[in-house]
Amino acid sequence: MPSLSIHLLSIALCLSSGFQQGYIASVINQPYKQIQQYINDSWVIQFGQPIGPATLNLIWSFLNVCFPIATIFGQLFANIACAKFGRKKTAILATALYIPGTLLCGLSKYLMPAFELLFVGRIIWSFANGLSSVNATIWIVECAPAKIRGRMASQQEVAMALGSLTTQGLGVLFSTDELWPFNFFPNCLIALINILMFIPIYESPQYIMEKYGDVDMARKALASYHGCSVADESIDQEMRICEESIEKGKKTSDQKVEKPTIKTEYTSNEIMFMPWRSRDQTSQLIRHAAWLGVMVKVF
């Protein structure tokens, strides 16, 4: 039977990842007319004339597009954050970033004509979601028992739908010129509750092994997630998988270090843009190959 720890982890990751993704994607859909009117009114205050329809459509498109773009950057940063801070601290950091991101979106109305805060808040919020989504996947793979791992991963999709449904419900109540910021504010409370849920949860056993080399603590964390005793045979099997994964990572890192490299006394900028200085055969070969690659991509 799944343990209390794995249930708590599953709910916490659903709230921090899938739910937030659905929330961010849909939160501006219901009150879009009110938000567009606010942007137009802010534009009049700043520039003295109404915004053109084409420009308004462009601004609105960017407000939507900055969500997937910022999410991608968050996903790219996630690998670094997970390795440096661990799965638990990365989850707390990402969830904490939801709060300023949400507040900036909502408070922009009351700091009129600073409609740019909508973009800043949405970018922070989306970046945090990208970070959280990758971290959630890593944490599930490393901690969930194999028999419920797929179920935990699929719950992210359910949470995403719930996040979208929540914004639709809030939109019915708050899609007016005065109340549309309240579509954002409830998410601050959700993020605070989410952070509190992460605090009692164990760190990933694999990170404990990688960072601290504490076998006893890693076994204790695994036992908590799997709902069994520390001496259980299944824990031995999972610990071997952890050790093999860490060892494989070290070997891959060593192989990368040992790969032969082309040595030259000149910097990359000198080789590419200062041919009168870097005249040796190695530099010429690198320069010709690099510019050939550029031309192939262009044409």
CATH superfamily of the largest domain: MFS general substrate transporter like domains
What is the terminal-to-terminal distance? 59 Å
CATH architecture of the largest domain: Up-down Bundle
Shape designation: flat
Radius of gyration: 25 Å
CATH class of the largest domain: Mainly Alpha
Beta content comes to under 5%
CATH topology of the largest domain: Growth Hormone, Chain: A
Q: What's the main sheet like?
A: none
Helix/strand order, N-terminal first: HHHHHHHHHHH
Structural class: mainly alpha
Q: What is the average of the pLDDT values?
A: 87
Count of separate structural domains: 2
Instruction: Classify the helix fraction into a percent range.
Output: over 70%
> What are the low-pLDDT stretches, counting only 5+ consecutive residues below 50?
none
What is the β-strand count?
0
Helix segment tally: 11
Describe the structure.
It is found in: Membrane. The structure is a single chain. With 299 residues, the protein is an all-alpha fold. The protein has two domains: 4-203, MFS general substrate transporter like domains (Growth Hormone, Chain: A, Up-down Bundle), CATH 1.20.1250.20; 268-298, no CATH class. The chain has helices at residues 4-26, 32-47, 53-107, 116-143, 146-174, 186-198, 205-212, 215-226, 233-258, 268-273, 281-298. The mean pLDDT is 87.
